[in-house]
Amino acid sequence: MRTTRALLLAATAGLAGGVAIAWFTRPAPPAAGAEALTADIGDHRPGFRHAGIDGRIWQASDFDGRWLMINFWATWCAPCVREMPLLQQVDDATGEALAIIGIAIDEPGEVRGFVERLGVRYPILIGTSDVRETRNRYGNPEGLLPYTVLVDRDGTIRWRHLGELDRSEIDQALAEAGFGDRSPRP
Q1: pLDDT value for 37
Q2: How many Å separate Cα 22 from the centre of its chain?
């Protein structure tokens, strides 16, 4: 009887401790008027602020008025590495009409030489926990890579893709989103 009572007391104390830890370490709720935690297609793009490998600080607002393709990647992600030359080709083909940026979830020392070896010239932003937060807010809280998002010139998320891209998928996404339509904005 004494052993049963001790086990019951220990289990109750453990449960209470677990509840207390969960309560005190839970994330704070978003402030009134704050951006949604995870944006979806049709939502306005979340803001971000990250350092580039060139030392420049980049913000989402730097791309206001332009189409933007954001590719979340890491040096250790084989599909990410395979699609980077393709993204460079798309960047070369679309010129100023479409900004492509890579956001690396990695350590800075790994990324600079890696990008140079691949011949990537579009902007590469870098970070760890801050980039994970941005990736989550752009609709990928699971954290799988590669992950690509297309934002139109008005800042609306038009397309998201989880996994390695091929050229036909990019071309189809751009066409379906209306990229290249030069009609005036309302």
Answers
A1: 80
A2: 27
Tell me: pLDDT of 18 over 80: no
The pLDDT tens digits for 40-57 are 999 999 999 999 999 999
Compute the distance between CA of residue 135 and CA of residue 130 in angstroms, rounded to an integer: 9
What are the boundaries of each domain within the chain?
49-177
Task: Measure the CA–CA gap between 124 and 101, rounded to whole angstroms.
Answer: 6
Whether residue 25 is predicted with pLDDT greater than 50 in this model: the reply is no
CB neighbour class for 109 (10 Å; exposed up to 12, middle 13-18, buried from 19)? exposed
Q: What proportion of the chain, given as a percentage, has pLDDT over 70?
A: 80
- What is the CATH T-level fold of the domain 49-177, as seen in this structure? Glutaredoxin (3.40.30)
Distances (CA, A) of 39 to 29, 56, 114, 160: 16, 26, 30, 10
Strands 124-127 and 67-73: unpaired
Q: Which residues contact 98 (CB under 8 A, 6 or more apart)?
A: 66, 67, 68, 69, 90, 91, 174, 179
**CA 3 to the chain's CA centroid:** 52
Please name the residue that has the structure tokens 């934002």: 151
CA distance 136 to 60: 15
